[in-house]
Design brief:
The protein is mainly β and about 130 residues long. The protein has no helices and nine strands.
Length: about 130
């Protein structure tokens, strides 16, 4: 598990390989990730948007931006956490993801970014 804390917000990431399948006559590698966002600060915060950079060993980097996470903009009081699962497809058995969440602190009304630690995606059969 990969973890990182930014401004009192702890991000924990666990990845899994989901399998391979054909899409448009090309093999693709499916990866899942499970993320927990924990508010270790003294203020209530809300996650408003996400930014991902997905690196694929055999393809161009992909940028993904959007509101919330899986259709939600969770509000986290001090000590609360939000967990969700998602995934991505790569054209190679190796890749990586990193990014950030844009959040707002309800006490100060200031927006801030929370780093999502870089994590590797690798199919177990492709490792030496």
């Amino acid at each position: 598990m990969i973890q990182q804390v930014t401004r009192g917000i702890k991000i924990s990431v666990k990845t899994s390989f989901q399998g391979t399948f054909l899409k448009n006559y090309k093999i693709h590698f499916a990866f899942g990730y499970h993320i927990t966002i924990e508010n270790q600060s003294n203020d209530s915060v809300q996650l408003n948007s996400r930014f991902w950079k997905i690196k694929d060993a055999l393809s161009k980097d992909e940028i993904v931006k959007g509101e919330g996470v899986i259709g939600k903009k969770p509000v986290l009081k001090p000590g609360e956490s939000h967990t969700y699962s998602s995934g991505c497809l790569l054209t190679s058995p190796f890749g990586a993801m990193s990014g950030h969440y844009s959040m707002i602190n309800f006490t100060s009304t200031r927006k801030f970014r929370v780093a999502i630690p870089s994590f590797k995606l690798s199919a177990p059969f492709a490792l030496n």
